[in-house]
Specification:
mainly alpha; two-stranded antiparallel ribbon; 2 strands
Length: 114
């Protein structure tokens, strides 16, 4: 980020990601999430590996359960506040802003399937 235009763009990306997180958390199952037994059903979430292979995330759920629990809706308010606070104070060249924008862009790309 080199100047005011880049800062404004960064702030827009950060706020958009915060809005997406709020909406996702609002429609997701609330409560304290824990990892326990495995279900027979699975969603169609596919992990694309570096070697070109794919794997249903649900089939790898033993390895992903704690990740999913860690990113339960309980984390959303904190992430939303972080993104909005960073948007309000976005600074060109600031490593924290750069990291937040990278997170926001990744979230938005995943949300739109890009």
């Amino acid at each position: 980020m080199d100047g005011p235009a880049e800062q404004t763009g960064a702030a827009s990306v950060l706020r958009a990601a915060a809005d997406v997180l709020e909406r996702l958390a609002a429609r997701t199952t609330a409560g304290r999430w824990t990892a326990s037994g495995l279900l027979a059903t699975r969603p169609e979430v596919i992990a694309h590996h570096e070697d070109g292979s794919t794997e249903h995330v649900a089939e790898a759920r033993a390895g992903t359960a704690n990740w999913i629990v860690a990113l339960s809706p309980a984390t959303a308010p904190h992430l939303v506040r972080w993104l909005r606070a960073t948007a309000d104070t976005a600074a060109a060249g600031d490593p924290a802003t750069t990291a937040a924008v990278a997170f926001a862009e990744t979230l938005l790309a995943a949300r739109t399937g890009r």
